[in-house]
Amino acid sequence: MKIGDVILLLLTAACFAAAFFIYPALPAKMASHWNINGNVNGYMPKAMGLYSMPVMMLIISVVFIAIPRFAPSKENINRFIETYYLFAIMLLVFLMTVFAYVVLWGLGVKLKINIFLSPVFALLIFFMGILLGRTKRNHFIGIRTAWTLSSDEAWDKTHKFAGLIFMLFSPLPLLGLFFEKGAFFILVFTIIVPLSIASIYSYSIMKK
């Protein structure tokens, strides 16, 4: 078992442990969804609301652990395995932050969701840029279009460009700290626009 596997499983176990110990202190129904204005518009029974995130983290951890072992393109994935695990760990940290927000809200600590999550989302986008910039051609991680999957040159050029674009866009979610009602749209913009630019760029490479 690789050190990255151990870290992923430890983070997941920590989330399960936190859920177990905090369970008695939470109300029977927990806030589970917030609208674009930061107001609660959905609730779940305590058990579902508390354990859904640890279960999701477990599933994601198992998938990230399995891909380098069983994917048809595992040789290429192992060429950027350190970055691969770094992103996986950052993704779990982001999910743990969401979990912490839900728990704090259930305990009566009602922080603004944009202030709590925007900085972590900015970090996640930055690490996504690092990952994209270092990926090698595979069927699981990256911008998988017909033209990137058909050419190492198209893949490498597209992903180095995409990595740079994502890192350049990564500070944008921090604007959500100041625009609560627009934070959701800023997050969507930060993902959709770089992906669109990178896809158009990869197509232009193949045309050349």
Task: Explain what you see.
The chain is mainly alpha-helical and 208 residues long. It has one domain (3-207). It has eight helices and two strands; from the N terminus they run αββααααααα. The protein has helices spanning 3-22, 46-70, 74-77, 81-106, 113-134, 146-149, 152-169, 183-207, and strands at 29-34, 40-45. Strands 1-2 form a two-stranded antiparallel sheet. A hairpin with a 5-residue loop joins β1 (29-34) and β2 (40-45). α4 (81-106) runs antiparallel to α5 (113-134) and α5 packs antiparallel against α7 (152-169). The longest helix has 26 residues, at 81-106. It is globular and about 60 Å long. The N and C termini lie far apart (43 Å). The model has no long low-confidence stretch (mean pLDDT 88).
Widest β-sheet, arrangement of strands:
1-2
Helix content: 55-70%
The shape, in one word, is globular
How many helices? The count is 8
Instruction: For the record, give the distance between the C-alpha atoms at the N and C termini, rounded to a whole number.
Output: 43 Å
**Could you say how many structural domains there are in total?**
1
Mean pLDDT: 88
* Strand content range: 5-15%
Unreliable runs: none
Q: Could you give the order of the helices and strands?
A: HEEHHHHHHH
Radius of gyration: 19 Å
Q: Quick one: how many beta strands?
A: 2
Largest sheet: 2 strands, antiparallel
Give the helix/strand class.
mainly alpha
